[in-house]
Amino acid sequence: MSAYELRKSALVAAATGQKREIQYPRKADGRARYPSEIFGENVFTLKTMAKALPKPIFASFLKQRRGRQNLDKTTADSIAHAVRVWAMDRGATHYTHWFQPQTGTTAEKHDAFLSLVPSFTPGGEEVTALDQFSGSQLLQSEPDASSFPSGGMRTTFEARGYTIWDTSSSMFVQEGPNGTSILYVPSVYISYNGDALDEKTVLLRSNEVLSRAASELVNLIEPEAHVSHVYTTLGTEQEFFLVDRTMYALRPDLKITGRTLVGQLPPRHQQLEDHYFGRIPSRVMRVISELELECLKLGIPIKTRHNEVAPGQFEVAPIFEEASAAVDHNLLTMDVLHKVAHRHNLRVLYHEKPFKGINGSGKHCNWSMSTSRGENLLDPTVRPETNHRFILFLLAVLRALQEHAALLRVAISSSSNEHRLGAQEAPPGIISAFLGDQLTEVLDAIEQNRPLKNFSVPQFQSIKVGGTVLDVKVAALPSIARDLTDRNRTSPFAFTGNKFEFRAVGSKQSPSFPVTVLNCAVTAAVGEITAALRAQAEAGGRARPSEEDKLAVIRQFIGLTKNVRFEGDNYSEEWTREAERRGLPNIRTAPEAFTHLIKPKHMDMLVKDTGIFTASELTSRYHIINERYAKDVLIEAETLVTIVGQQILPAAFEYRKGLAEAAAALKAVDVGAGPEVDTLNVLTPLVAALQGQLRALTQASEAAVAHASDDSNSHARFACENLVPAIASTRAAADALEVVVADKFWPLPKYTELLLTI
């Protein structure tokens, strides 16, 4: 069967194939179960654990979980036995320590509960089959540490590493094949020497240091608060594309790199702006509905689903959770969506830019801080101008951005996200914060020691900062609540009511490292503000800062952080020039960004000031991200070389041969030169141009391989400066051929088939 026939049969199958249907869970009387009744049924929650364990054992575990004591063998064995019984009652045959190596995804190794125990009888030795799970098996496992990225910390012959149960995350079961399931034990991953080799260990560390710093600041300015800890909250809006799986199977570039390396836009894509928030296609609705059901069972609070801007693009978003749980749940959601889409003969694409010319995908990380009393520290309340606690923490975030913008740029940098950042669809590489007119006025008024201005809202009413009502001048409609800020989708870091939305994070990325970096930078800024408050109070002979002391420090940090605030269009050239004038870093490429990770200013903050990383851990991460970038780009180049050489050029040759034969036949019967000759005259230079680009790309790829022994950043820079433009030029030449070569000869599913066949 030819490539053309495969494409057409895939189209027919997508249109006529049997659709998967599942039955929503129902009660014994036939009524549907409420989502709240399903939520978390496959999770070994604290409530479930409390029912399964003796009270003293459960109390001992809670003390350990709060950091007050180590987990003893008796408690560990009791928990292991209880969770094994609970999991096996749900069909579990295996368990796995589920962890987050520095690969951007998760990892797992399955071990069976089944054990063979020898016993001695008068007739000789026998073995007895038992289902067992000990406390030591629960607490740790040993994956191969030499087979995961370590940035030089581990060599091939130094293979030992450990996964250790993260007791702050609940265990859960996932349904497997043939009616079985697997018990998942969320874990951290460290080397034999105790170095963090994963994303989660450093996130947990950053949560702890931010908690201590933020609690100290709250208790300093509000001694009656008695805040014991502060935790970061996170909500991750996950964008993705869905394509027909058969079409996907016919695209080597999608399978190998996650994005299309060739392809022309169809006549209609997103330019009519009708896909965003439009009706969700029925096939996609089936996928997302099944995803939501699976997530309910796993305790993942999916709240929102909708079409995104580009055709074939969608989004799901959860309710906010504690940051570590939110990261676990985001990665688990991505995994579950992959499995569910497969069942519906669809493929989910998480690459930030799988299709050239239309919007890519992000993972908007909505971040805030809450106290042990449940108070959101970034809630401006009705009168933010008098809420000094809110203003101080707001300024701490702005100070973090101002001091460590380059570090945040590192956290969002990858070969895939580079295609999206600044592409008139996502924030640029310049890190700035958007607050909105009203909060900007609050800070300006405080700094200038003047009353707040009134705002004139066109067509509506005059309101003050703190006013929250809009009259839409339609009698049948109620007055509506108005947030303190508008939304700025061009900003990489926008305040959106009671949280910051870190919009620049890529859809394929784990949110763990970006959140870790943000936590660290805010921790340093909170410490700086706390020290300034103490110094201000001591200068006045006071044990604690007065209201005047708070205002003095607030005015100081308003002035210090002005440069990082920007309320306009982040896509504009004017902002690029303005940012340069303000001294904000404009880091244009990932390899350039990576160098900032080990610059003294940022390294001191991450290693000495906050202690989140050791120097070796940070250096290793630096090498890992550089190596990953170079490898990703080289894989793309070699994939494109193969596609062009083995599929596109042969298709063009075959089409050209047919045209030449037709032209010769016409000439033989004295018909004269027909349109075939005209097409040949267009086609031949395009083929020659693509052959030239292919040679240049091949040479650049070979040179990149030769540079692999260089310093990791030099290798990444070489790939960025040589391979990336060569890939783009080769693509342009191939895409020019696509519009000339007849459809029946083209070997790859086109954008129309990929984007519109769901």
From TrEMBL:
GO molecular function: glutamine synthetase activity
The GS beta-grasp domain, residue ranges: 93-194
Protein name: Glutamine synthetase
Pfam short name (any one): GSIII_N
Superkingdom as given in the UniProt entry: Eukaryota
Any one of the GO BP annotations: glutamine biosynthetic process
PROSITE patterns listed in its UniProt record: GLNA_ATP, GS_BETA_GRASP, GS_CATALYTIC
Record-annotated GS catalytic domain positions: 206-648
Organism: Coemansia thaxteri
Family the entry assigns: Belongs to the glutamine synthetase family.
